[in-house]
Amino acid sequence: MYYESNEVKRNVKDWAKVFMDARKTASSAERYGLRIEGLVQRYVDQFWKDELAIAQYQDLAMKQGFTGGGGLNEQIKTEISESYKNELYRGIIQDAFRLIAEKDYKNADNEVRKILNKTKKELNKICTIELYDGSIADTNKNSEMADMQVYLDVPDNIVDPELWSSSLDKKGNGKIQFTPLAYLWADQPTELKLYEKGKSKDEEPDTTISFTMTDIVQKVDIGVVGVPLEELIGEYEGFKEIISINLTDDGYQAYLDMEPETVTSKAECDEAVWSLYLEEQESSPLNAVKITITSEDITSGLCSINGIIENNNGPQTMSIDCEYKGGSLDLKGQEEKTIITPIKEADGTIRIKGDKMVFALKDPETGKSLYKIGLSFDLTKVQ
């Protein structure tokens, strides 16, 4: 038979190659389908264009009793071609497309593996934050930041925060290393918190430095002096979250004076005040805060925080005297040392935030501190 000859016969791999070559230049799936039909049709019509093969067929047909052209006419040619084409579609062409699908799957799988291996390699590179004190002009001088502990501000779900820290040497140098994968898992922190030697990281940091990780090795100057006070002055808006309310001794005595029969202990009184606050929050959870930082003498560093805190009894004014030095606000008149470090982010936004800070609220008439309120807040300067 003509199509069984070595010169003409196509096996599954041959058909698969023909179809894959056609797919490379097809502009659409529809065009590809038309090319497939054309390629198969030309193949089954190929016999009728081979005059030598037709002559051999006619000779064989006449020996079998056919007359003239071997019994051939255009209708018979078409029927023979269609019959053979259907045979190809039902058999070897289906096998060819299965082979193409297998090759496509294998190629896609290999590409995915290449991408995954490349991604794995990138995500497991070692990133380094190199800490240095750029304020030291004299190389023989030690850094004022020497021996401080530096922590990258990672979220609470990170179980090994100590691995995200570094102790500064005498020159203020240190480094923190991690992989890009770990950095992504830690929500891509952008703040460094600095603590004096021996100070717990659960306390407020002595200094906070904002940075942006732009390369696999990021240099961060820990000798920066912070946001200038003239830039810090202005209005701020944001939100607060009260996390604790406790009476001072003076506050407890005031409760005893007002309701001596209902109060049995300071702990019970604290619990009652906190429960009352929670009930008020459920009915009207107002957490908005507006403050203004002012200073009559910028060069002295002395300034004031004047604010309005919205609560269920209406807006409550507050005023706290501060001293701005070393890039941090030192709040005066507090029972515990309270320091806030403003942050200037990469886009120029100035933020003031605190986490679990304790403030003493004074009675404006007596000047005594009645409450100690623990709160977290996050404020940004109004542009």
Description:
The chain is α+β, with helices and mostly antiparallel strands. The protein folds into 3 domains: 2-121, no CATH class; 127-221, Immunoglobulin-like (Sandwich), CATH 2.60.40; 229-381, Lipocalin, CATH 2.40.128. The protein has helices at 12-25, 29-45, 51-63, 74-90, 92-123, 180-185, 229-232, 249-258, 266-283, and strands spanning 127-132, 149-152, 165-167, 174-178, 191-195, 207-210, 217-221, 234-247, 288-297, 302-311, 314-325, 328-331, 338-340, 343-344, 350-362, 369-381. Helix 1 (12-25) crosses helix 5.
At CATH's second level, what is the architecture of the largest domain? Answer: Beta Barrel
Distance between the termini: 88 Å
Radius of gyration: 41 Å
State the major sheet. Answer: 9 strands, antiparallel
List the helices and strands and how they pair.
Blueprint: H1 12-25, H2 29-45, H3 51-63, H4 74-90, H5 92-123, E1 127-132, E2 149-152, E3 165-167, E4 174-178, H6 180-185, E5 191-195, E6 207-210, E7 217-221, H7 229-232, E8 234-247, H8 249-258, H9 266-283, E9 288-297, E10 302-311, E11 314-325, E12 328-331, E13 338-340, E14 343-344, E15 350-362, E16 369-381
Parallel strand pairs: 1-7
Antiparallel strand pairs: 1-4, 2-3, 2-5, 5-6, 8-9, 8-16, 9-10, 10-11, 11-12, 12-13, 14-15, 15-16
Helix pairs in contact: 1-2, 1-5, 2-4
Keywords for this structure?
single chain, 383 residues, alpha+beta, Immunoglobulin-like, Lipocalin, nine-stranded antiparallel sheet, 9 helices, 34% helix, elongated
